[in-house]
Amino acid sequence: xxxxxxxxxxxxxxxxxxxxxxxxxxxxxxxxxxxxxxxxxxxxxxxxxxxxxxxxxxxxxxxxxxxxxxxxxxxxxxxxxxxxxxxxxxxxxxxxxxxxxxxxxxxxxxxxxxxxxxxxxxxxxxxxxxxxxxxxxxxxxxxxxxxxxxxxxxxxxxxxxxxxxxxxxxxxxxxxxxxxxxxxxxxxxxxxxxxxxxxxxxxxxxxxxxxxxxxxxxxxxxxxxxxxxxxxxxxxxxxxxxxxxxxxxxxxxxxxxxxxxxxxxxxxxxxxxxxxxxxxxxxxxxxxxxxxxxxxxxxxxxxxxxxxx
Length: 309
Hints:
Layout: E1 7-11, H1 15-30, E2 35-39, H2 43-46, H3 52-55, H4 63-71, E3 76-80, E4 92-97, E5 105-108, E6 123-125, H5 129-138, E7 143-145, H6 151-162, E8 165-169, H7 170-175, E9 184-186, E10 201-206, H8 212-219, H9 222-237, E11 246-253, E12 256-264, E13 271-278, H10 281-308
Parallel strand pairs: 1-2, 1-3, 6-7, 6-8
Antiparallel strand pairs: 3-10, 4-10, 5-8, 5-9, 11-12, 12-13
Helix pairs in contact: 1-8, 9-10
């Protein structure tokens, strides 16, 4: 905490990260806590021109914030949940999962194309292996190119000729107020499953922090938390990270959980997709992971790991 007793909330410095952090700060203030926001530069921001697949760290968006938590520099950190590894550093926990915004991906283009309406051989920008794989599975004629930068930067690069279209998380567009100004179409889950946790925010803190319970009370949304734990159990069982082409979408309703999951090869040639239902997040996620591995998804993951070694 700061000298005046305020809780220090750590965040990345992008416009989207700050919007997300300030929204959480307002909820915490409404819960009676004094909050200060502190910007911390992460690995992804320190290496802005290197493709994420080359950096290939599961904690590329979170490492420096974790270090700040462990050193006592900050009291809590706000992340996009999809960027948080399934295995956290010892002593750190996720105190809360925010109410999930639309988890869908969006295809951004000045032409307003959907994926089937893209011209033959169109250039689509994304740094996500998951998005690349599902795009190429549906449209093997597309040319997929890497792109880095904040949302505004990526849209500007696309409009400057770097690509014909761009894939972004719809939740990010909405949080930035760009969903009406930037032409886009939304991928349905039958075409593209989102990243694990996409659309929710995660609040990390020390397991023994005295205000952990109050943070949770102010920020946690239980149905979103159940969905998140289910999807993260799937990913953990697959031993994947944010650089592995895994998609998942869990919906928790009336005590039941329905989970869709997939693993795809980076070139989209192979795609394994399954569904599972149940009541316990861990069991549903792990069962679906084992089904995917049994169908052949393990071969894809082994090949990716071998290439990286």
